[in-house]
């Protein structure tokens, strides 16, 4: 009699292996390049004259805010360390994918390090900064510019902040305020936390911006001098803190949740003050404003009147590149600058979204892990049993136990007159199952009892053997995805 098995170990295990290999390769590497390649430079929105140079391409990154051991107070040290590794790995993947767009310049909108403002020894700060440079490695030496965020230099004067925060920032990232000229555009980078601090002093004195004597080298002084010296050409303003806007203003469809609310607290302020915002708009008159700090995407158009003329200036708050900043889809911004003087469209920008890393863990890896374990559990259970279909006769083979098995099956299929099953027959041969269980139904037709037997289930392995087979299958399937994850992670960290 031919014995049919519902599953074969090699087929099921290999199928799960292939599934996990494809899934891990895609979600650990391929999906990042896929999203980056789909986000193209918005050059098509610009009218570039034939005799002009190609548009300048700027990659804008906001709030990477790399973690350290102080980022999650109260969280166990081991869990904090694991979080740090996972976030660093995600940042490296997103950064490497973003660099594939080959920008001409890179701009960071502040909050490079989560705790750059906190007290630390020079050695500890250097190690922290070195981690940032390792994550955002650039083999092509692309010009890179930074503006300070409140996590870099602090905001206000709390005793918990390091008095060396400003000097450390300037020695590692560059000046607090700066102007960069590219493609006939002036890109003005301001120290927004410094502006907030000086604005509090001005407001406390009861003086207007026209009456206020700015601190030498401060943000207000820098902005006033730029406004006086700048003669022509479009200007783009970069500020870590978004400008003021009416409460509850809409941020557009790419916003994940809520809007930007006014608020202030220990070491932060959600938006610049109304007077500060009007001062910047009036003195600089930018064509575009790019800001950070909020972590989520927001587009808002500022409307104000100057000299009887109504002006509208668009501000884009760029998404954080980090998966740890309370958003599901991290991102960055691509900005194209039109070098053609007098062109109607001097710039064009587009947001780029990176994969939902938390969604990959919760919606892909965990469900697939549970499904794989259930499949292997069922597979091991079915492999430990043999089904003998009814109505088939045993074929002779070399095993002496075969006639005994055939006889037992026949008795099981026929049954006794009262429908009872025969007792199991022991045998010294490994081919004879320890016991059998039949699937049968008894019913009455024309006053006579009829018995229908479907098949016989033969239990072939002990619980220990069953557990051993199951764990071996789990090991054989898990080896490949774990190896791929480790290799991709190692390659990402070492690249």
From TrEMBL:
Keywords: Membrane, Transmembrane, Transmembrane helix. InterPro entries: Calcineurin-like_PHP (IPR004843), Metallo-depent_PP-like (IPR029052), PGAP5/Cdc1/Ted1 (IPR033308). It is found in: Membrane. The keyword Coiled coil does not apply. It comes from Marasmiellus scandens. It is a multi-pass membrane protein. It comes from the Eukaryota. Gene3D superfamilies: 3.60.21.10. Residues 58-297 form the Calcineurin-like phosphoesterase domain. SUPFAM superfamilies: Metallo-dependent phosphatases (SSF56300). PANTHER family: METALLO PHOSPHOESTERASE RELATED, METALLOPHOSPHOESTERASE, ISOFORM E. This is Calcineurin-like phosphoesterase domain-containing protein. The chain crosses the membrane at residues 358-378, 477-494.
């Amino acid at each position: 009699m031919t014995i049919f098995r519902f599953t074969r170990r090699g087929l099921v295990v290999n199928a799960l292996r292939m599934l996990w290999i494809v899934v891990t390769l895609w979600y650990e590497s391929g999906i990042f390049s896929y999203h980056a390649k789909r986000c193209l430079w918005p050059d098509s929105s610009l009218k570039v004259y034939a005799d002009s140079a190609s548009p300048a391409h700027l990659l804008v990154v906001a709030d990477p805010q790399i973690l350290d051991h102080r980022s999650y107070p109260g969280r166990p040290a081991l869990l904090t360390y694991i979080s740090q590794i996972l976030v660093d790995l995600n940042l490296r993947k997103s950064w490497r994918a973003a660099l594939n767009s080959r920008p001409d310049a890179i701009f960071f909108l502040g909050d490079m390090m989560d705790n750059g403002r906190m007290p630390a020894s020079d050695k500890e700060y250097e190690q922290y900064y070195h981690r940032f440079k390792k994550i955002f490695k650039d083999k092509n030496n692309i010009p890179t510019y930074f503006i300070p965020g409140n996590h870099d230099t602090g905001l206000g004067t709390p005793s918990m902040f390091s008095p060396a925060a400003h000097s450390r920032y300037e020695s590692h990232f560059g000046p607090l305020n700066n102007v960069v000229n590219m493609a006939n555009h002036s890109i003005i980078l301001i120290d927004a936390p410094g502006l907030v601090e000086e604005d509090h002093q001005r407001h406390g004195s009861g003086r207007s911006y026209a009456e206020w004597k700015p601190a030498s080298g401060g943000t207000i002084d820098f902005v006033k001098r730029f406004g006086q010296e700048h003669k022509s050409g479009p200007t783009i303003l970069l500020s870590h803190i978004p400008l003021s806007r009416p409460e509850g203003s809409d941020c557009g469809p790419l916003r994940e949740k809520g809007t930007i609310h006014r608020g202030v607290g220990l070491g932060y302020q959600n938006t610049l003050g109304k007077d500060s915002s009007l001062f910047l708009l009036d003195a600089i008159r930018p064509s575009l404003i790019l800001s950070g700090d909020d972590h989520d995407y927001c587009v808002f158009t500022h409307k104000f009147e100057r000299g009887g003329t109504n002006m509208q200036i668009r501000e884009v708050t760029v998404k954080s590149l980090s998966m740890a900043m309370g958003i599901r889809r991290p991102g960055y911004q691509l900005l194209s600058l039109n070098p053609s003087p007098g062109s109607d469209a001097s710039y064009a920008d587009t947001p780029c979204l990176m994969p939902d890393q938390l969604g990959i863990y919760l919606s892909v890896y965990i469900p697939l892990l549970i499904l794989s374990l259930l499949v292997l559990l069922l597979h091991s259970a079915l492999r430990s049993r043999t089904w003998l279909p009814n109505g088939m006769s045993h074929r002779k083979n070399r095993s002496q136990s075969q006639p005994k098995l055939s006889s037992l099956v026949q008795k099981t299929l026929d049954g006794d007159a009262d429908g009872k099953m025969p007792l199991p027959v022991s045998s010294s041969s490994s081919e004879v199952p320890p016991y059998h269980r039949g699937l049968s139904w008894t019913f009455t037709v024309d006053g006579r009892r009829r018995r229908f037997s479907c098949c016989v289930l033969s239990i072939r392995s002990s619980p220990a053997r069953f557990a051993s087979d199951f764990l071996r299958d789990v090991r054989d399937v898990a080896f490949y995805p774990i190896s791929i994850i480790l290799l991709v992670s190692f390659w990402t960290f070492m690249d």
